[in-house]
Amino acid sequence: MSQKPAIPKGTRDFLPQDVAKRNYIFDTIKSVFQLYGFSPIETPSFELSSTLMGKYGEEGDRLIFRILNSGDKMKKADIEALQNDNLPRFANSLAEKALRYDLTVPFARFVVQHQNELSFPFKRYQIQLVWRADRPQHGRYQEFYQCDADVVGSDSLLYEVELIQIFDAVLTDLNLPGFTIQMNNRKILSGIAEVSGESEKLIDITVAIDKLDKIGEEGVVKELAEKGVSASAIKRIQPLFSLSGSNDEKIALLTEFLKDSEIGLKGIEELKVVLNHINRIGLRRGELLVDVTLARGLNYYTGAIFEVKAKGVKMGSICGGGRYDDLTGLFGLKGVSGVGISFGADRIYDVLNELNLFPTEVTKGLPVLFMNFGEKEAEKCLDLANELRANKVACEVYPSAAKLQKQMKYANDRNVQFVILIGENELNTSSFVLKNMETGEQTTLKFEELSSIYSLLK
Fold first, then answer.
1. E strand or H helix that includes residue 253
2. Are residues 378 and 433 in the same domain?
3. Cβ–Cβ contacts within 10 Å for residue 38, how many?
4. Is residue 421 within 8 Å of 432, Cβ to Cβ?
């Protein structure tokens, strides 16, 4: 008995109408990226394991898909490391390559490798697949697209402003009815750890706080305690979990809380600069909110951090990003600041589907299908089809003179907009019947009037 076909959990097949919807998302994002002066690049789907490992923190490293060595390279497995219970070293000897976890670390590698070919500040966008060995669930996949825009070679906060505008422009163009752009600064989180007397626990604190919306305040407190954060520090940090009010009110409370932290106050000043610009320029639809509990678990962030959530739907963040001041330093190029954002195209797709926000024209089917009534009729259909294609009108000729009912079913299944019928009578009168598949209306036209249907297809 043959095995029933299946795909791995955390991946999806996409039918033609699904691909059309996804391309609509990609095209919308790409057009805004280009509008703001970003240029496209691409990087390989897999990198050397040494490029990726150690860049995302302990939890991120566990989610990286490793590619098992093949052939004679398997003989180079470090058995001694296995015997000494050094599993990371043993794993590295088995897998020299890994699927990329995100587009940011490969981009940092790209910048260092091609630094002499680039003009700085360098603004790039990239739309490619990434892979994460995460537990599949609603809105969380193991294979998904990221759509990134990054700038490297400048520490200007104007780029943070620009990236917030890009969030707003893309999601407004996609007709999302409402969304919040949450913003924080890793310097503020460093300041919180500092004034709580737990500077050395910064990573543990940010990783725990980043889970607030998943495990709740009680869960965060428990995790902080398990990581060795003192009870007094937890007590001092805990009121920030429910910090409320306007952006200005939050800034005022944070300023008082961090008055003894130089790095914390620096983070607040950076927030204020960005907020002042956005308040002056305004956003089309998005709402910019200061969220002190926003941490973003990735270790490489050093300044502003962002997450975007759609209103009216149960879904995690659909976009994210932040500033990373020394990511290229991991590959030997010091002093190159960067900032970037990423759109989660798969989550955005799910949100637009759930809210029924895809424009009807996105899923319009084949513009024209010629019915086939026999050899001579099909020859004329091929001639007219060539004329349509020469004028950039997509069309098909049904391949055989099957029953009309079968051909019409095919037209309906393909969501065809118009069918053209040419039978013996039409051949004799040099005419064709044009049927609107949506309304059922039929019109008889001469062959030389074929161009009159162009306006109907716009």
1. helix 247-257
2. yes
3. 21
4. yes
398 and 339 both lie in a single domain: no
Q: Which of 298, 333, 354 is the last residue of a domain?
A: 354
Nearest-angstrom CA–CA distance, 352 and 233: 42
Domain-located, residue 375: yes
Asked whether residue 294 falls in the same domain as residue 347, the answer is yes
Residue 356 Ramachandran class (φ > 0 left, ψ -120 to 50 alpha, else beta)? left
Structure tokens at 453: 């249907």
**What are the pLDDT digits (tens) for 301-330?**
899 999 999 998 888 899 999 998 888 888
Domain match, 321 and 453 both: no
> Helix, strand or coil for residue 340?
strand
Residue stretches of the chain with pLDDT short of 50: none
pLDDT in tens, 91-128: 777 888 999 999 989 999 999 999 999 999 999 999 99
Among candidate residues 349, 307, 338, the one with its CA nearest the CA of residue 29:
349
Count the domains in the chain: 2
Q: Report whether the peptide linkage leading into residue 106 is cis, meaning its omega lies within 30 degrees of zero.
A: no
Q: What is the residue range of 273's domain?
A: 16-36+152-354
| 376 shares a domain with 317 | no
Length of the chain: 458
Q: Residues near 231 by Cβ (< 8 Å), separated by ≥ 6?
A: 225
**β-strand 143-152 against 338-344: which pairing, if any?**
antiparallel
The SS3 of residue 341 is: strand
- Asked if the bond preceding 121 is cis, omega within 30° of 0, the reply is yes
Residues 325 and 382 in one domain: no
Assign 3-class secondary structure to 195-217. Answer: HCCCHHHHHHHHHHHCCHHHHHH
End residue of a domain, out of 319, 354, 389: 354
Query: pLDDT exceeding 90 applies to what percent of the chain?
Result: 67
Helix (H, G, I), strand (E, B) or coil at 43: coil
Summarize pLDDT for 260-272 with one digit per residue, the tens.
Answer: 999 999 999 999 9
The answer as to whether 301 is a domain residue is yes
Residues 263 and 391 in one domain: no
| Residue 226 shares a structural domain with residue 335 | yes
Structural tokens at position 406: 């079968």
Query: What is d(CA 377, CA 182) in angstroms, rounded to the nearest whole number?
Result: 62
Determine the number of helices (DSSP H) and then strands (DSSP E) in the chain: 17, 16
**Is residue 313 a contact partner of residue 355, using CB atoms and an 8 Å limit?**
yes
Q: In what helix (H) or strand (E) does residue 320 lie, and over which residues does it extend?
A: strand 319-324
